[in-house]
Specification:
Structural class: alpha/beta
CATH superfamily of the largest domain: P-loop containing nucleotide triphosphate hydrolases
Shape: globular
CATH topology of the largest domain: Rossmann fold
Mean pLDDT: 84
Number of helices: 11
Low-confidence stretches: none
Helix content: 25-40%
CATH class of the largest domain: Alpha Beta
Strand order of the largest sheet: 10-9-11-12-8-13
CATH architecture of the largest domain: 3-Layer(aba) Sandwich
Radius of gyration: 21 Å
Oligomer: single chain
Order of helices and strands: EHHEEHHEEEEHEHEHHEEHEHEH
Length: about 325
C-alpha cells in the first residue's frame, strides 16, 4: 500500500471533516482509501481499487467550498456523489435548488447546478432553443453550458457540439500574433478546451474532435453554415457586433439549441461599437422559445474576494 499526502490547512481540515470526521469516512468508503488526519494535511493510504484521481477532485471541491464559506455535510456529499432526482441543495436564506446530476465528469463526480441562476439556466435549456446567459466572470456560465452540451451529445440528443468564441481582445489583432491561424486563435479558445478536458477523458475527447462531433472554432467560421441537430455555444458574446450576432443566431438549424454567454461589463470592442449581446437581448426579449438568464455577483463560485471585487466595481460605474 502506498501513502500519499494531500495539502490542507488545519482550519480547512476541521471545517471539511464534519462531526466525528464523517465526511472523511464517507470518502474512504467511496474511493477505497484510508484517510489519516493527525499530521499536517491528509495522509492517504491506497487500498485495492483506490480511485485517487476521483478523491482529489472531490477534496478540491470541498476545499474551494470551505474557502467560500460553504460547509458541505456528509449528507450533501452523498447527494453530490450519488444524487437522486429528489435531491436538493439548500442555499443561504433557506431556498433550495434541485441537484439532479447533469453529467458525471471524467473523475466520476456529478456536475449539477450550484446556484439559483445556474438552476434557471438548466431549466431554460430544457424548455427553449435559444438561451442568453449574461453575468460576471466566475459564475460558471461557460462551464455549465459546455456541460449541458456534452451531456446532450452523450445522450445522443445532439449529433454534434459547436463551441464558438469571437477572436477579439482589446488592443490586439490576430494578424500581429505569431504562428499559423490555428496557433493564432488557440489562446481565445483555451477556456473552452479546459472545460472539455475537465469533463471528458482524453481519448474520448480526442475521438470526438477527430470525427467532428465536437468543434471548437472562432465565430468567423460559422458564416454561411446551417447547423442541424447541434448544440451550439457562443461564449464571450459581449465581444460580437450586432451583425455578427445576427449571423450566429441565423446559423441555427432544425433540432438545434444555442446558449449565448457573456458579460456586458467586459466589452473589448472598439470604442463606440455596440455589443451584439446587449442589442440581441433587448431586441429578442419576449419571443417564445428564447430565454434569458441573469447571473449576478452572488452566483460567483471563485475565491470569495471575487464577489467583493465585482461589487466594488459595480458601485464605481
Amino acid at each position: 500500500m502506498s501513502e500519499l499526502h494531500y495539502r490542507l490547512s488545519d482550519d480547512l481540515k476541521r471545517t471539511i471533516s464534519g462531526v466525528n470526521e464523517t465526511v472523511f469516512r464517507l470518502l474512504e468508503s467511496r474511493f477505497c482509501v484510508e484517510i489519516r488526519t493527525r499530521l499536517p494535511g491528509l495522509s492517504i493510504i491506497e487500498r485495492e481499487n483506490a480511485d485517487i484521481s476521483g478523491l482529489y477532485a472531490v477534496l478540491d471541491q470541498l476545499k474551494i467550498a470551505a474557502r467560500n464559506g460553504k460547509v458541505i455535510s456528509a449528507t450533501e456529499l452523498t447527494r453530490m456523489l450519488d444524487p437522486t432526482d429528489s435531491a436538493s441543495l439548500q442555499l443561504e436564506g433557506g431556498e433550495t435548488i434541485p441537484t439532479t446530476p447533469i453529467f458525471r465528469n471524467r473523475m466520476g463526480v456529478s456536475v449539477f447546478a450550484k446556484t439559483k441562476a445556474q438552476a434557471e439556466l438548466v431549466s431554460a435549456v430544457e424548455h427553449n432553443d435559444i438561451i442568453f446567459a449574461k453575468g460576471p466572470a466566475g459564475t460558471g456560465k461557460t462551464f455549465l453550458a459546455v456541460t449541458l452540451a456534452v451531456s446532450s451529445l452523450e445522450r445522443h440528443e445532439a449529433e454534434r457540439i459547436c463551441l464558438v468564441r469571437p477572436a477579439v481582445e482589446a488592443g490586439e489583432s490576430l494578424g500581429y500574433l505569431p504562428g499559423d491561424l490555428k496557433e493564432k486563435i488557440a489562446p481565445y479558445l483555451r477556456p473552452i478546451h479546459d472545460s472539455l478536458a475537465e469533463l471528458l477523458p482524453v481519448e474520448k475527447l480526442r475521438k470526438y474532435e477527430e470525427t467532428g462531433a465536437i468543434e471548437v472554432a472562432p465565430l468567423a467560421y460559422m458564416r454561411g453554415r446551417t447547423l442541424k441537430r447541434a448544440f451550439i455555444i457562443l461564449d464571450e458574446a459581449q465581444n460580437t457586433t450586432p451583425e455578427q450576432m445576427k449571423m450566429f443566431l441565423t446559423r441555427l438549424g432544425p433540432h438545434s439549441k444555442a446558449i449565448i454567454t457573456g458579460d456586458a461589463t467586459q466589452v473589448d470592442l472598439a470604442k463606440g461599437q455596440k455589443s451584439g449581446l446587449t442589442h440581441a437581448m433587448n431586441l429578442l426579449k419576449g419571443i417564445r422559445g428564447i430565454a434569458q438568464v441573469e447571473f449576478t455577483a452572488t452566483d460567483v463560485l471563485r475565491h470569495p474576494l471575487v464577489k467583493d471585487i465585482l461589487n466594488a466595481y459595480e458601485k464605481d460605474i
